[in-house]
Design a protein that fits this description.
The protein has a domain of 65 residues: RNA polymerase subunit, RPB6/omega (Eukaryotic RPB6 RNA polymerase subunit, Alpha-Beta Complex), CATH 3.90.940.10. It is 38% helix and 0% strand.
């Protein structure tokens, strides 16, 4: 194969964006020392990666999995627990709001809108405005 074209690879990876991602990831792994599965023919790594995808010498699914793994920041590993978690006894358990001890529930103050407005009117600002001219700005500059 003298030159590889996108048409040679689109049969194997139908999405062109995914093809670019896979070929770039494979080219980076070749640059990192991964073995080549086709003849190099003095080609650069992106062309070799595309030729490998077109010739199906590497499974596209394997490259896809490698790409996903390289992008992941946190890989979760499910490990079995050595023992079961202990059960908390009822005397050590804190009360649940609305279900257990009604004496521990908090009482919420309720204000009417009229009471709130009266309270706001009585409040005075503690410091004058930082602009010095009542909040208006000089825009003639």
């Amino acid at each position: 194969m003298a030159r590889v074209t996108v048409e040679d690879c689109v049969d194997k990876v139908p999405n062109r964006f995914e093809l670019v991602l896979l070929a770039a990831h494979r080219a980076r792994s070749i640059s990192g020392g991964s073995s080549i599965t086709v003849d190099a023919d003095n080609d650069k790594n992106p062309v070799i990666a595309l030729r490998e995808i077109a010739d199906e010498t590497i499974p596209a699914e394997d490259v896809r999995e490698g790409l996903i793994h390289s992008i992941q920041k946190n890989v979760e590993v499910d490990e079995p627990e050595t023992e079961a978690a202990p059960v908390i006894t009822s005397e050590r358990r804190s009360p649940i709001l609305g279900r257990d001890d009604h004496g521990s529930d908090t009482v919420v103050d309720v204000l009417t809108e009229e009471q709130l407005l009266r309270g706001l009117e009585t409040m005075t600002p503690s410091e004058p405005s930082s602009t010095g001219n009542g909040g208006s700005r000089d825009r003639s500059r």
